[in-house]
Amino acid sequence: GAPLVFDERLQEVGFGVWEGRPVEEVWRTDTEVITAWSRDPTSATPLGGEPLMAVAERVNACFRELYTEYRGQRLLLVTHGGVIRVLLSQVMGMPLSCAGRIHVPYAALSTVAIYHHDSGDQIQLLGHNWRGEETDPV
């Protein structure tokens, strides 16, 4: 069978003092930082949290290593929404500051193909979908 590999670099973004708190409470108590973070998550980091640029570095390094090691094979990554947003923004060539615009609900499935050429690898998003309820806009 296929190997099962755990890699800590695919853990969720660390949100520091925001961890485990209701979103409404964070908006009430840390309005300035969360407002800046929601506009551009690369420009603000919650106290004790992990800067998004650091998340992108660890996630993208892991992704490159995995697709190089498993070249030509199918690979399933099971991870968190923030990590998926970072990966998809990379795949789509989007600025990291726009990663929060990608909706990643629970149990979403994103399919990516990597084409290996002599001139370099080409990564393409084949699909991004989920089964389940739509979330209501807030």
Task: Describe it.
- The protein contains four helices and two strands, in the order ααααββ.
- The longest helix is centred in the middle third of the chain and has 18 residues.
- The protein is of the alpha+beta class.
- Helices cover 33% and strands 14% of the residues.
- The model has no long low-confidence stretch (mean pLDDT 91).
- Tell me the structural class: alpha+beta
Helical proportion? 25-40%
CA-based gyration radius: 16 Å
* Parts with pLDDT < 50 across at least 5 consecutive residues: none
How confident is the prediction overall: mean pLDDT? 91
Biggest sheet, in brief? 2 strands, antiparallel
Number of helices: 4
Overall geometry comes to elongated
| N- and C-termini, Cα separation | 44 Å
Strand portion: 5-15%
Outline the fold blueprint.
Layout lengths: L22 H7 L1 H9 L12 H18 L11 H11 L17 E9 L2 E10 L9
Antiparallel strand pairs: 1-2
Helix pairs in contact: 1-2, 3-4
Please summarize what this structure is.
With 138 residues, the protein is of the alpha+beta class. The protein contains four helices and two strands. The protein has a two-stranded antiparallel sheet with strand order 1-2.
List keywords for this structure.
138 residues, alpha+beta, two-stranded antiparallel sheet, 4 helices, elongated
